[in-house]
Amino acid sequence: MEIEEIGGVKVERIGAHSHIKGLGLDERGKAKFAADGLVGQLRAREAAGLVVKMAKEGRLSGKAVLLAGPPGTGKTAIAVAIARELGEGVPFIQLSGSEIYSAERKKTEVLMEAMRKAIGVKVREMRKVYEGEVTEIDIKTGSSPYNPFVKVPQEAVITLKTTSEEKKLRVGPNVARQLVEFGISEGDVIMIDAESGRVSKIGRTQESYTYDLEAEQIVPRPDGTVLKEKEFVYVMTLDDLDNMYARRRGGFFSLLFGVGEREIDPEVRAAVDQQVKEWVEAGRAEIIPGVMFIDDAHMMDIEALSFISRAMESELVPIIILATNRGITRIRGTEIEAPFGMPLDLLDRLVIIVTDKYNGDEIEHILRIRAKEEGIEVSEDALKSLRKLGEERSLRYAVQILGIAGVKARSEGKKAIGIEDVEEVSLRFSDVKEAVDHLRKYEEELLK
């Protein structure tokens, strides 16, 4: 990883949940209507707040959380908010229940890897770092080598400023990817390891703290030079350490070409656990249990669900959050029907939080937040039209139309989305119900 100082354009970052900073609760644990990037779902957010307190007090052992509700009701957003509430640097791993099926690896191995990715090890070490307030950031994207239709970060140019100096840096794809993942923007105070390129977000300066839905730590602009030697605190996961140890064990060719085996040997994981234990006892590290979020949990079969149930009893386990939008359905791998497609003995050990459909006011507020997050100006008439689409069709459909209408308006040189943009785009793009009706119309002519 190379970082080059150079002798300078903003980046637009659009993530589905990049605006979420927490659960938006007051000091008594009561949910505000709109705060920390979340809107509505007051009962679910207050329940999630109690889950966070249980986790911090170590009282979530042997339990997991189930988020249940219709599609598009904020289940993923609440899971992200729980991770944010647990603190800065807490690992958050998200996967779908269908991702565990592979012809090359066992289901339990995929789940074990995800669990170890969700357990962080905070290490303290003296390192050379670039530290400062981000005053300019420009991330250049290009086509992914695996999918030409997907844009991925290629490099970035950032300007870091301290009380003493200002430097402009050009960084490679590894650092650029982390800048996007952490949602780094102007006004953030960050550290970049000069050797490894690991990025740490420290907080935000007071001068740049203007977004009323933010809940980030306010920090002063760093002193001294941009490049300095200081105690560098960063988080690795147990999975990172597993792969490092596996490469060492594989010898010279593994160092060059990778681990060489698709599954990590249990002996390697045992050695990693022992090393981490020694670091903790020596005061060099601390373990940070993160969040493993499994969406569409009903897609997992009885074997995978049994593994989750056993894993909940382990000493070294992340906070497990499952989500589903199913009612009474068949447990995959059996002929048994059960609530949420899960065995009753597992359901008895889950803390269940339900989510409700959003009302019109909540939909409108969410659309305002998304428009601000994506840098889109929307006229009041257009916003009312989008609200109506969210009420009659779905919130997700309305958000998609918002983004597409923004592209259309910009391409035509408009400063804001008008109602005509929303109506035209909604006529060209169908929601699920309209698409299904269209398929039924031509059912006899379609291939089966």
TrEMBL record:
Does the record carry Cell division as a key word?
no
Q: Entry's InterPro entries?
A: AAA+_ATPase, NA-bd_OB-fold, P-loop_NTPase, RuvB-like, RuvB-like_C, RuvBL1/2_DNA/RNA_bd_dom, TIP49_P-loop
- List its EC numbers: 3.6.4.12
Which GO biological process annotations does it have? box C/D snoRNP assembly; chromatin remodeling; regulation of transcription by RNA polymerase II
What keywords sit in the KW lines?
ATP-binding, Helicase, Hydrolase, Nucleotide-binding
Coiled-coil residues are: none
Name of the protein this chain belongs to? DNA helicase
